[in-house]
């Protein structure tokens, strides 16, 4: 089975659309894509929110180590975001021995937060692994001992009538260490993400990290998605 990596811009739009279509849930996700030929005046006309909130800017080219290469801008105004992108557009970077120019950025709202959670749903030949941690973010590898993983045989559907048991029983080990008041919210979000994973024919859906915004809505700060072709 062929697999295709999905840009973060596309992955977040797919996640938002699927959450609304399947559950009527409106995630507070807003994303804009910037390339070398992007007109910033026209971009603002298409996405008025860009001038109404502080922003995050980062390359959207399916590679990591963006922060370590001075390619992530945080808490920027729209003019600052434009300046940040123009200063780095076309910059040559070397990641894991591969060198090339940066030519695509994603821009989204800056969400102040304290907690960072980790979620990874990955399909294998005969099952699906679901991993969760309360210690998400850039130090996830150093805190891998805090990651909890459950295994769901692929023979079990994760949609329809089986979705409710998955939320209450199968997912319980992942959230057992959370404060009682947080468990229902995060359980529900994990269950919804599983259904979206299945609906989109994804083979990988990773959020590192996701958090909650000021209104208590789930907000994925970084997404990796791989789709089956």
In brief:
It is built from six helices and 13 strands. It has 229 residues and is α+β, with helices and mostly antiparallel strands. Strands 1, 8, 9, 10, 11, 12 and 13 form a seven-stranded antiparallel sheet that branches. A four-stranded antiparallel sheet has the order 2-7-3-4, with helices on one face.
Keywords:
28% helix; 13 strands; four-stranded antiparallel β-sheet; alpha+beta; 31% strand; 229 residues; seven-stranded antiparallel β-sheet
How large a portion of the residues is in β-strands, by DSSP E? 25-35%
The chain-level structural class is: alpha+beta
Number of beta strands:
13
> Which word captures the global form?
globular
Number of helices: 6
Mean pLDDT across the residues is: 91
Describe the biggest sheet? 7 strands, antiparallel
Structure notes:
With 229 residues, this protein is of the alpha+beta class. It contains six helices and 13 strands. It has helices at 8-23, 40-46, 78-88, 163-170, 172-175, 183-199, and strands at 3-6, 32-35, 55-59, 73-76, 92-95, 98-101, 104-109, 117-123, 127-133, 148-153, 202-212, 218-220, 223-228. Strands 1, 8, 9, 10, 11, 12 and 13 form a seven-stranded antiparallel β-sheet that branches. α1 packs across α6 (183-199) and α4 packs across α6 (183-199). The chain is globular, with a radius of gyration of 18 Å. The chain starts with a strand and ends with a strand. Residues 160-165 have low confidence and may be disordered.
